[in-house]
Amino acid sequence: MRILHILDHGLPLQSGYTFRTRAILKAQEGLGWTVAAVTGPRHGVAPASVESIDGLTFHRTAAGVKPGPVGEVAGIAAFAKRIESAVDAFKPDILHAHSPVIDALAALIVARKRKLPLVYEIRAFWEDAAVGNGTGTATSLRYRATRALETWAVRRAHAVAVICEGLRGDLVARGIAADKITVSPNGVDLELFGTAPPRDDALGAALGLDGADVVGFIGSFYDYEGLDDLIGAMPALVAVRPKARLLMVGGGPMEAALRAQAEASPVADAIRFVGRVPHEEVERYYGLVDILAYPRKRMRLTDLVTPLKPLEAMAQGRLVAASNVGGHRELIRDGETGTLFPPDDPQAIADALAVMFADRSDWDERRARGRDFVKTERNWSSNIRRYDPLYGRLIAAAAREKR
């Protein structure tokens, strides 16, 4: 079976999007399938039109999308043209487009022209991601238009995959047939995240974390992540746990505001910002953290979409504490594999973390339960088989139609 994946961006860029993509492609190769990918104009400038990265082949679209509707349409047309040339070179049996919706629109053009089956996989609704990132509002014309376009694309794809039940339920509520939707949940490549990292004592000493109760966040600094609430919780946490320290690893649109908030905090000396680190060094920082905290704000995006980072943390034997929003509830069983606290409430964060630090008697058991959950229910080596019957059915239907 030959699958061409159609992506917004890909390796060597580093994001939750590219890591999920890598996991899917590598796991599919592990099943003996042949895969390739084509990235859109938002990937940026690439050194060659076709690249091999980490053993995976990426066809690149020329970079650049002009702002405004005319620019978007031109970008979709250019992307479709590049997808078609990748089809000529790779000769896939099926197209697998991944959100945002403009990828599906470009793929639909090629699928119809070449009579290829198309799976459209939604990781988040683009309009809700814009609200979460602070680049859009739920009352805007752009939001309504993007939502309508998403529904239009879903109706015309041959099948739809989503990463969680929240997205599936939303599509069913829009009138999409439930049997058209496959849930392919976020998972972890245990070859990358399956071993608990040792503590790097030298790094811990350099960051002033020796003997500390370390709370950490490792990821992108978007507004919806609620990191301002986590920083806001630190004075109350330090009041009851004087050795509590917060380690912030990553960067993003909110970084400057979060650094300013931390500097103004009465416990500024208990908050450490590291900045972005290369992916191959991330485990060094995971190894310093006692509890990974994910204080996402309550909004449509976080209620519908499951994040990847808590799964990676559990796979590495780390404790997790997260806000009680829909996306987290699909991943974390409160009191069993992690702790859930009320969203948008710094005091509630501080209270939950203080309770966890005060009683470490079940930490080993909770770590083991979390890792077992990832291994049995969120492991890409088994998750990937969810695509098998879907692909097989669509390819067989396409063959019958051609005959």
In words, what does this structure look like?
By secondary structure, the protein is an alpha/beta fold. It folds into two domains: 2-187 and 379-402, 3-Layer(aba) Sandwich (Rossmann fold), CATH 3.40.50; 191-377, Glycogen Phosphorylase B (Rossmann fold). The protein has helices at residues 16-30, 69-90, 101-114, 126-132, 141-156, 165-173, 190-193, 201-206, 227-240, 255-264, 282-286, 300-304, 309-315, 326-329, 346-358, 363-377, 380-383, 387-402; strands at 2-7, 34-39, 50-53, 56-60, 94-98, 118-122, 159-162, 181-183, 213-220, 244-251, 271-275, 291-294, 319-323, 339-341. Strands 3-4-2-1-5-6-7-8 form an eight-stranded mixed sheet, sandwiched between helices. Helix 1 links the parallel strand 1 (2-7) and strand 2. The two termini are 19 Å apart.
